[in-house]
Write a structure and sequence with these properties.
This protein is mainly beta. The chain contains three helices and 15 strands. It is globular.
């Protein structure tokens, strides 16, 4: 509840695979349930098609087993979140670089569909500082097969941010971090073709566009929402 504007404010995540249509949003305010119609519209995120040799696309059994273990590990991250809001004000872009890989793009490798791009790729030089986009708790730091050295941060109330392909991780699991704090150095670890930062966001289990989080969270304050303005 915003006392200055006498309004309730909140963030709602719509997953990039959510089917279009009219749904119902139910909100409990002071013990009273309110219902609002919610229109989910279709969005064309675009697609890319790649032709790659089997040496890159086919994994041996040990690698497949590792991928499965890591998928299970990451899935457990979403099972619990701090019950209070740890973040405050607008979110920051973790690096000032431009977008080099858009959110939601569908990938087809050798005409087989793969998972859509669930974050954004940001231009970053090797060992460039990566900043925490808002205050929270580090819940996982791991060197993963696909995303390389990675940091997962819980901002409370089922809002998480992720930072992938790091060259160096400068925080530890369980650590409380502040908005603007350096949490790692950009790199090209994992399945990456060059130095950059993959930045992802999950809200109530939904994969959402980090850039839209920047815009939506700006409604909670007038702070500058970029890594270059602190």
């Amino acid at each position: 509840y915003d006392t200055a504007s006498s309004e309730y404010k909140g963030l709602l995540g719509i997953d990039l695979d959510q089917k279009p249509g009219v749904g119902k949003l139910s909100v409990a305010i002071d013990g009273t349930m309110h219902e609002f119609p919610l229109l989910v519209q279709s969005v064309d995120f675009g697609a890319r098609r790649l032709t790659l040799p089997p040496s890159i696309t086919v994994f041996d059994e040990p690698t497949l087993a590792r991928i499965k273990r890591e998928q299970d590990m990451v899935a457990k991250v979403w099972e619990w979140s701090e019950p209070t809001r740890l973040w405050k004000g607008s979110f920051l872009s973790p690096v000032p670089g431009d977008i080099t890989g858009k959110f939601g793009v569908r990938t087809f490798i050798n005409e087989e569909p793969r998972s859509p791009h669930s974050g954004v790729d940001l231009r970053a030089e090797n060992n460039e500082n990566v900043y925490c986009s808002n205050s929270g708790r580090v819940v996982l730091t791991e060197d993963l097969f696909f995303s390389g050295k990675s940091v997962f941060i819980d901002h409370g109330l089922n809002l998480f941010t992720m930072y992938f392909h790091l060259n160096e991780v400068l925080v530890e699991e369980g650590m409380l971090v502040k908005k603007g704090q350096i949490i790692g150095k950009a790199g090209s670890t994992g399945r990456s073709t060059g130095p950059h930062l993959h930045w992802g966001v999950r809200l109530n289990g939904s994969r959402v566009n980090p850039n839209e989080l920047l815009e939506a969270s700006d409604r909670f304050s007038y702070e500058a929402a970029s890594a270059g303005k602190r």
